[in-house]
C-alpha cells in the first residue's frame, strides 16, 4: 500500500552542524519525491524535490539523495541556522494509486543557537 | 498573487454544530486539495478537485464531511455535525498539475470542537 516512513520524528542540532532526515517508501514505481518545510502557524512549503531519474540534487545548503534500490531518500541540511527550525515532511508519489502524493509523518527540527 | 487563502484561521465550536471552512485557490490552478493535519495521523488527503469536479473523495472520513467547488476560485469543506475528534488543522492547497509539481498550501484553518 501507500506508505512513507520518516525518521527521526524530532531532531536537535547545534547551529552550524548538519541535519539529516531519512524517508522510505514502499512502491518501486514511485517517481517523484518532494520535501516540504512547515513553519509554526503556516502551511507546508516546497523546498526541494527529486525525480527518480537522478540520484542527488542540491540547492545551496540543502540536498536530497535518492536510493531507488533501497527505496529510500534523505534530506541533508548543512551549516544549519536558527531559521531552519521547522517541521519537515517528505513525500512520495504513487502512480499506482492515481498519482497520489503520500506524506511522511514529519520531523521537528530544532537548531540551537 | 496572494497565494491560497483560507478562512477562518481559527474556529472553536461545540459538538453537533455545523462547520464550514473556505478556500480560495491560486488563480489559474486547475487542482484543489483539502488536507487534514493531526499529530497522530500527519497530513491526510481528504479530497481533491480538477477543474471544479471532485475526482477522489476516498479520504473523506465519513458522511459528516462534504466538500464543494462551485467555481474555479472558491471551495468549501463542511462538517455536519461536528465531533471532538474532528479537531485538527485543515489545509487547502492548489496546483497546476496532479502528481509531479509544487503544491501551494494555505495557512490552514485550526478547528477545535468542544
Summarize the structure.
The complex is a heterodimer of chains A (113) and B (114). Chain A is an all-beta fold.
Q: Care to describe what's here?
A:
The complex is a heterodimer of chains A (113) and B (114). Chain A is mainly beta and 113 residues long. Chain A has strands spanning 4-7, 10-14, 19-25, 32-38, 45-51, 56-59, 62-67, 72-77, 86-94, 100-103, 107-112. In chain A, the strands form two sheets. In chain A, strands 2, 4, 5, 9, 10 and 11 form a six-stranded mixed sheet that branches. With 114 residues, chain B is mainly beta. In chain B, the strands form two sheets. In chain B, strands 2, 4, 5, 6, 9, 10 and 11 form a seven-stranded mixed sheet that branches. A four-stranded antiparallel sheet of chain B has the order 1-3-8-7, with no helix packed on it. The mean pLDDT of chain B is 94. The chains are: A mainly beta (113), B mainly beta (114). Chains A and B meet through strand 4, strand 5 and strand 10 of A and strand 5 of B.
Question: How many DSSP helices of chain A?
Answer: 0
- Residue-averaged pLDDT of chain A, rounded? 94
Order of helices and strands of chain A: EEEEEEEEEEE
The beta-strand count of chain A equals: 11
How would a crystallographer describe the biggest sheet of chain B? 7 strands, mixed
Number of helices of chain B: 0
Uncertain segments of chain A: none
Strand content of chain B: over 45%
Could you state the oligomeric state of the chains shown?
heterodimer
Structural class of chain B: mainly beta
Output the structural class of chain A.
mainly beta
Apparent shape of chain A:
globular
The level of helicity of chain B is under 10%
Distance between the termini of chain A: 41 Å
Shape of chain B: globular
Q: Biggest interface and which pair forms it?
A: A-B, 23 and 16 residues
